[in-house]
Amino acid sequence: MIESVTSQASTGLFSGGPVQPGGNLGKDEFLQLLVSQLRNQDPLNPSDPQEFAAQLAQFTSIEQLVNIGQQLESMAAGNEALIATINSSSAIDLIGKKVMVMGDTVEIPASGEVKVTVGVGGKGGTGEVVVRDEFGVESGRIPLQPLTPGIQQIDLTALVGHSPPGKYTYSVELTDADGASVPVTTFSVVTVEGVRYTPNGPVLTVGPDTIPLGDVLEIIG
Questions:
Q1: Which residue, 64, 92, 120, sits at the end of a domain?
Q2: In terms of CB atoms within 10 Å, which end of the chain has fewer, N or C?
Q3: Radius of gyration of the chain (CA)
Q4: What is the pLDDT of residues 60-82, one digit of tens each?
């Protein structure tokens, strides 16, 4: 009877499409059963018209919910495609530009000045910056003035002329007034050389290294 059909629809068995063997009840099948019941009802004891109206209203509500769900799925797919297009375009625009990312590398030039950016945690503190070459050998230490919490710049120009030009790594060792270690986040400035496309989206290439587009913190120019 129509009661059992409506019960199935209200519990999620209505799929909005053709019924499959052992699958969900489609809306066409639902209407066919409804019409069959109307045709075969006892003329001396007809079904309550208000009950039929309620069942039809319930059927219509379920169908609308299914349609809304399908529209939301279509919108989500469209948004993902749009985001992917924007990310690809943004990544291509970064080729040849300098960007800031989380990292510990720094390029020491043959002349000129060089600075690095760090994020100081806790209450800040005092200490020194240690620079190492590509083999991990210490190249120099520079004592630091007290650094306050937040984003700070550290001048490494003192190393220019004393260390061969090239790529180095650096770390910042700070302690607070109580002698406790202060957390420091280091950043690197790199020049984007290319873009590589992966299943997870575009990544920027810098030499043999890759950087996810979402890891870019600042575009320097």
A1: 92
A2: C
A3: 33
A4: 676 677 777 777 777 776 666 55
